[in-house]
Task: inverse folding
């Protein structure tokens, strides 16, 4: 189990100029929604952005981090993006997309 602040610090190792928002989806310290906003993502494809972050985080998967929902975007994209998160274990069966509760930690 890790804290949101720890996840944020690890991601800043990969993208030091980023604004990083981390939400612990289940308050369990192992399922996180992470929104990463950086000018350095400009001109990069979505998968390239995620690979940059996962290069640092893969050593922590599956322990202590079980699931990461990454939204890697430029500031312009962040202005128009929605507030949904992918939650693979959100209850029931199948894939779950839900609105983010910003107060959830």
Result:
């Amino acid at each position: 189990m890790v804290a949101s602040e720890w996840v944020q610090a690890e991601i800043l190792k990969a993208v030091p100029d980023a604004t990083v928002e981390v939400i612990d989806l289940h308050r369990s310290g192992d399922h996180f929604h992470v929104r990463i906003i950086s000018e350095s993502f400009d001109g990069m494809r979505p998968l390239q952005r995620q690979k940059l972050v996962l290069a640092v985080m893969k050593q922590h998967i599956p322990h202590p981090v079980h699931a990461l929902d990454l939204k890697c975007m430029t500031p312009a994209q962040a202005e128009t993006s929605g507030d949904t998160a992918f939650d693979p274990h959100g209850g029931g069966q199948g894939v779950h997309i839900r609105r983010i509760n910003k107060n959830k930690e």
In short: Strands lie at 19-24, 31-37, 67-73, 84-87, 96-99. Residues 4-99 form a domain with the GMP Synthetase; Chain A, domain 3 fold (CATH 3.30.300.90). The first helix runs from residue 4 to 14. The CA atoms of residues 43 and 74 lie 9 Å apart.
